[in-house]
Amino acid sequence: MRGLFFKIFIILWIAQSLIFVISTALIVRHHFESPDILFDTINTGLRNNARDAVAAYEQGGCAAFTKFGAALGQTVALTDAAGANLCWPQGMTRPTHLEAGAPQPPDRRNDHPDHPYGMQIGEQYVWVVPFNSAGGHRYIFLLSRPHHPWKPSLFHDLERFSSPQLPVAIVIGGLTTFVLVLLITRPVVQLRRAARSLSTGKLSTRVKLGKAAGIFFAGDEIEALMHDFNHMAERLEQLVAAQKLLLRDVSHELRSPLARLSVGLELAREDAGTVMVAHLDRIERETERLNQLIGQLLTLSSMEALERQKHFRKLSLNQLIEKMVPDAEFEARQRECTIGFTAEAECAVEGNEELLYRAVENVVRNAIRYTASGTAVEIALRPITLRGVAMAEIAVSDRGPGIPEGQLEAIFRPFYRVDDARSPDTGGFGVGLAIAERAVRLHGGELVAENRPDGGATLRLRIAAVKE
Q1: pLDDT confidence of residue 103
Q2: For residue 96, is it left (φ>0), alpha (ψ between -120 and 50) or beta?
Q3: CA–CA gap between residue 216 and residue 208 (Å, rounded)
Q4: Does some domain include residue 43?
Q5: Domains of the chain: total
Q6: How far apart are CA 232 and CA 67, in angstroms?
Q7: Which pLDDT belongs to residue 424?
Q8: How far is it, in rounded angstroms, from Cα 52 to Cα 34?
Q9: Does residue 342 or residue 72 have the better pLDDT?
Q10: Would 104 be classed as within a structural domain?
Q11: What confidence tens digit (pLDDT) does each residue in 169-195 have?
């Protein structure tokens, strides 16, 4: 299998090699021109100056020579072949090797006697140019310039080095990095999106590998990760579907024996004496509880099979809650508590009235079940803005023991109970909140739980609102 690490290493190595070759070529071209070109340019310029200076001297003497030097803007001098002064300006230092009997400087004049050469004399730099005139006379032309020592500067060297090779290196490196990031991160982004979609309950989510990416990542770790993700999603979908099918089938199959049990119970009442009545009442209560559980399971199973409703209609949450409150108050009196409902404004949503009614009712009944005796269950309806979207929020608060912080999300799972002992004092099977959460989610909303600072818990149903 071709490893991803090996591919990235090869690509980076090739990119760095290209950058090095191009940068080196630019550096050599920019900073190290051919020495022959440089010296030929200097020699040609100096010999042209020497030719014009000697011509001026032979035509007009030192006066014409001095005038030529002034026009040139340089300090110039002229001697004969033996070094005797012909035209020498005042203040110009004479090179010692031009004196009679002085040793010649270690330069190339012995091999190339007509080549110009230069030397530093004090604060001046003197160029010496031997020259043969058209008349056959040999002269030595001297040109003196002030010597300014070059002081190396880090910033100056950096500036010369960085232009233009540094911008080229940055562009090449940027393009290489962009291509690498594009090739590597796109599949990762697809995996991330698929994971988010899977976490929302869309078990049919799969990762698709494009043709270009498929060629590049064929056989490596990223392709293997995509295949593993798709296999995991497919397996999850099969397991969840099998679980839902089993739950639905078992619930349906239990309905028939329960119905026969109810008929047998009524027949037993006719023949039972007073002693058996209490036992039969107990059997009837437990049968009814079991029947309620099966009904909730069938409801949950049918809701899990639903997708978002296509034919929602506009309805008022204010009217829906007002319709539900009387039934809730009847149940609250059994627990010696009360129901309070307040609405800040009229809130309308697009939805299914039966599903929303059942969701709100289950949350309120859960609050009634856990609130302390003599307290009130508070229902508050208000418009809010969440993540830039206008929503209607129904907050149901109780005065119960609250919910452990680590279980605020777990309470919406089917059959989950905060009290591990599943005490019959609180009743319920742990299915009502799962039904409410699924109903709210089908409407594109959310159901969240939080603890109240002064005791108790608050469950908030949030659904996208529409204008009245």
Answers
A1: 47
A2: alpha
A3: 14
A4: yes
A5: 2
A6: 96
A7: 47
A8: 28
A9: 342
A10: yes
A11: 777 777 777 777 677 777 778 888 888
Residue 204 within a domain: no
Strands 313-316 and 338-343: unpaired
pLDDT of residue 341: 94
What is the value of pTM for the model shown?
A: 0.48
Answer with the one of 96, 117, 146 that is the final residue of a domain.
146
Report the alpha-carbon distance of residue 466 to residue 390 in Å, rounded: 8
What whole-number distance in Å separates Cα of residue 291 and Cα of residue 414? Answer: 17
CATH code of the domain covering residue 372: 3.30.565.10
**Residues 425, 427: Cα–Cα separation, whole Å:** 6
- What is the domain extent for residue 426? 308-466
Residue 143 contacts residue 75 (beta carbons within 8 Å): yes
Q: How many CB atoms lie within 10 A of CB 4?
A: 17
pLDDT tens-digit map of 92-101: 877 776 665 4
- Which of 436, 438, 437, 443 lies closest to 313, judged by CA? 443
Best CA proximity match to 248, nearest among 288, 287, 296, 203: 296
d(CA 468, CA 410): 35
**3-class DSSP assignment, residue 384:** strand
Residue 27: phi, psi to the nearest 5? -65, -45
Tokens 């950058």 locate to: 19
Predicted confidence at residue 1, as pLDDT, reads 41
Which ranges of 201-271 would DSSP assign to H, the alpha helix? 211-216, 221-271
Which of 93, 111, 146 is the C-terminal boundary of a domain? Answer: 146
pLDDT at 111: 53
199 part of a folded domain: no
The better pLDDT of the pair 13, 382 is held by 382
User: What is the model's pLDDT at position 108?
Assistant: 47
Mean pLDDT of the region 447-451: 93
Contacts of 285 (CB under 8 A, 6+ apart): none
